[in-house]
C-alpha cells in the first residue's frame, strides 16, 4: 500500500546496540525487514564515516534483501559517493557529519557549500538515485537546494523536537513555510529528527510533507512494545494527523 505520507524507519540504533558488544545481534537487517512488514514504506540507514553503527556489510545486505526502498544517509565525501554508486539505493540523503557529534546536529549548509555539493548531486542523479539534502527549515537553504536542482529536501525537525511552548510553535511555522516554499518550487519535502509519538502530529499535518524519517525513538520504544508495534503505532499517529 502506498501512503500519502510515507514512513521511513531508521534502523541505525539497532546497529548501535549490536556494536556495543561487538557481536552479530541484534541484526539491523532483521529489524528493517520487520519494520517493513509492520508498515514502514522505506528504510533509512546512515553509514557514518567512523562506522559507529551501520557498517558497509549492513548496507550491502540492506541493498540486497530489502523489498522496500532504501534511503542511504551519507556525508558529502568521495568515499560515500563511491559506496552509493556501488549499491544504488533508491535515495541518498546528504547530511553534514562531524566525528565529535552524537547525532546529526544541524542541516547541511547547502547555500555555503554549493560548489562541493553540485558534482555529488550530479553524479548521484545520473545514477538515478533520488538525492535529498538534509537542511534547516529556512528560505536561504531552500533557495540553495533549488539552485542545486535536487528533487528532494529533508527538513531538520531537531530544533522543533527540543523546544516547547511558543518557541516550538514558531519553529513549526518555520517548518511549514519552508515546506511550502520547497513544494512550490517542485521539490518533494521530507522531514525528520527527534520525532516521537507525542510530537509527530503537527509535522505530519504539514500538507506538503511526503515522508518522515524516524529512528531513535522507534528503536527505544521497541524495547517495551516490540518494533512492529512501535512502527504500527507511529503510522497511526501520522495517519490521524493527516
Ligand atoms: N533524518 C536524518 C537525515 C537523520 O540524520 C536522522 C538521524 O540519523 C533521522 C532522520 C532520524 O532521526 P531520529 O533518530 O532522531 O528519529
TrEMBL record:
Pathway where this protein functions: Cofactor biosynthesis; pyridoxine 5'-phosphate biosynthesis; pyridoxine 5'-phosphate from D-erythrose 4-phosphate: step 5/5
One Gene Ontology cellular component annotation held by this UniProt entry: cytosol
EC number: 2.6.99.2
Active site: 46 (proton acceptor), 73 (proton acceptor), 193 (proton donor)
Catalytic reaction annotation: 3-amino-2-oxopropyl phosphate + 1-deoxy-D-xylulose 5-phosphate = pyridoxine 5'-phosphate + phosphate + 2 H2O + H(+)
Swiss-Prot/TrEMBL site (Transition state stabilizer) positions: 154
Function: Catalyzes the complicated ring closure reaction between the two acyclic compounds 1-deoxy-D-xylulose-5-phosphate (DXP) and 3-amino-2-oxopropyl phosphate (1-amino-acetone-3-phosphate or AAP) to form pyridoxine 5'-phosphate (PNP) and inorganic phosphate.
Protein name: Pyridoxine 5'-phosphate synthase
